[in-house]
Every structure is written in structure tokens, then in C-alpha cells.
Design brief:
Layout (H helix, E strand, L loop, with lengths): L23 H37 L5 E5 H6 L9 E4 L5 E5 L2 E5 L4 E6 L2
Protein name: DUF2116 family Zn-ribbon domain-containing protein
InterPro entries: Znf_RING/FYVE/PHD
Length: about 120
Amino acid sequence: MDKKACKICKTPLKGRSDKMFCSATCKAYYHNKLKEVTNRATLDTDKILHRNRSILLEIMGKNATQITVLKTVLEKKNFKFNYITGFYENAQQKRYHIVYDFAWMHFKTGEILIVRRK
């Protein structure tokens, strides 16, 4: 059976058979680099999602729970309709697009229903 080595410094490992790092330092280094790569890859998308949420908050205000606006209102604010954090369908099979704590739904009339999620 081959001896396993640390993923970072290649030092031979002692101890558990599923061990991957020789020290807490190597383990922390590995996870910090992994996080750095992930953050770099997702930064642009995160910025768009945060901007979309800010636009919805601006339109809704602090206290409203739902509002209907024309799609052009969102378009003028450069809302990116393809960037969402999720979606769900209600009992009438209407699809809501979710951006964090807000959801919105298209109507055929060109209107958008925006709701604040609980």
C-alpha cells in the first residue's frame, strides 16, 4: 500500500487513513486558496445579483410587501432578468423568480409583480 502525502507540502502522512494534510497550516492554506478561487469566479455574478436586489428594494421601498410595475421600469434601471437565486411555482403553476428576499413574476401584459418574501 502506497503511503499518502500531504496535498500541499507532500510530507508523508501519519495517522488516520483518510487524512489529507500534515498540519493545520497546510489544511488552512488549502481551504483559503479554494475560497479565493471560488470568490474570484463568482464575483461578477454576485455583483449583478446584489444590484438586482438593490433595484427591487428601491422600487418596493421599506414597507411594501408587493407591487406591480411595468417591465420597462426594471429595464431602465438595468435589471438583469436572467440572474436569480432561485424560483418557485405557486399553486396556480405561476413561476416566481427569486432574488434573495424578493420574488418577481412576469405577466403577459408587460407588468411585473414584485413581492417581498418572508
